Batch of 2 targets.
Target 1
Amino acid sequence: MSDHSGASVTPVEAFEPPYYVAVFTSVHAEERSGYGETAARMEELVKDVPGYLGMDTAQTPGGLSITVGYFRDADALTQWRSNTEHRAAQSRGRAEWYESYTLHVAKVERSHGFKRA
Amino acid sequence: MSDHSGASVTPVEAFEPPYYVAVFTSVHAEERSGYGETAARMEELVKDVPGYLGMDTAQTPGGLSITVGYFRDADALTQWRSNTEHRAAQSRGRAEWYESYTLHVAKVERSHGFKRA
């Protein structure tokens, strides 16, 4: 749900598969009152979901935002998806904050990471 | 492989599952000679892969880049992964262009899109 620019500069690591990714790509509406507070609140709230592993977010100025959430299993995603406060935020997002978005929920089959020595 | 800023401002649509996503998150090295040309070449090259569906990319200035490639099936990903020119670009990326990166390859189980009316 979040795609504000307070991004960490270390990508979330490669976990041992299987795990889940929720890929959320979006284009913002021009006017976004209240968005920042809600995004920050969602970032806090998701941390309480058992099986939540982390989040990556990037935003091209004036362009696309991509947020990827990582979850240990489908139950963790179901719990996050059904969270009441999250559902209210999604509703408000469709009504006010997004021009368009796509969500892809997928089960990771392989992963790897690289870090400069 | 690509995360330059020539991003489209429409997210790739939600396809009918199953399909695959390759989520590539990265932090750049400070010096990146030759990166832009190679990224542009990879974006052209991947279009020749049968089963390639599209790509989303976003980059927070000074922060994280995320590129998501969409593929119809595992064969399409295998073909892209084994492309000689792509492999050379990956090598050069590890040697010169990236501080760190993570790749997550995952099979999409559900997806949906939203577009403001």
Target 2
Amino acid sequence: MYIFVLVCHFKKLAMRKVILGVAVSLDGFIEGPNGEYDWCVIDPDYSFDEFFKRLDTFFVGRKTYEMTSAAEGSPPGFPTFKEYVFSTTLDKVKEGATLIKGDIKTEVERIKKEDGKDIWLFGGAGLTTSLMNLGLVDELSLAIYPILLGGGKPLFQNINNRIKLKLVDLKKYSTGSVSLTYNIIV
Amino acid sequence: MYIFVLVCHFKKLAMRKVILGVAVSLDGFIEGPNGEYDWCVIDPDYSFDEFFKRLDTFFVGRKTYEMTSAAEGSPPGFPTFKEYVFSTTLDKVKEGATLIKGDIKTEVERIKKEDGKDIWLFGGAGLTTSLMNLGLVDELSLAIYPILLGGGKPLFQNINNRIKLKLVDLKKYSTGSVSLTYNIIV
């Protein structure tokens, strides 16, 4: 009995985290008014290595999937992750990717309980809102760029309730971007 | 001639800065959906002393003025600053305060050229937008609180153009709030 409880406890602790990891302007936009992301230049002293070590999977919304799958392969230096595409309109996705059309909560909870590393919630805005409101995101890792875009696509919109956060990491880069990492407090 | 140029240069360098100094949620709100600011608790290891030393004046919009002037005197620990109230609808303001009804750009440029310390742009949202769009704000000093409010009054709205920033200071407090200070790059 004790061993069973301990194992369950360990499984719970070991559950995979969903990490919203994105770059955002100081006024909270992930794209400019015309879809621009030219402002979002990766800092020369930033390395994705540490972040990527924690991950083996990413979650994308339909629009981000269509944008990224138009490119051949992964960008240079990006490892190949297992990809879940969330869409109510697509009927199929590319080979190797998995389409999630059903009940998001059930599906994400199932994936989080599977063996594996953490999961990168890579976008877009609609999927982020859904997962945040369902309490399925565990960590925010935001790179705040030193710019006000004045408009565009907001990172956070239609969040239903207050969400308390715990700052767990803070880094500053030479270009003036700041990386803030928070755990979401349930 | 050289002395004159030098004096002008010095005067320009010495011009008073307008500093937008506010607390904001990670999703960019200065008030919650029902005007709440209970989330904005001053960190026990934060001191206003250093910030206040730089200032002797503040700029407020009409709503902030009406809210703060309903209270008797300054909050404990807050020095008494010279107060400029920006409003197109008010006809008079309390004794000691100055009403700015005219051309904002001319008036603010005049005040910035006067002798004195820096100026705290204390709110509200409308005045902030006007001064940002007119290029009259020199510095942002934001305390980012570890919370998503999900809605409310945004700090930045209707900013007309991209505004580039230079990070000049970064501090972390025990409650998880982060103070980010930027110069606005003209």
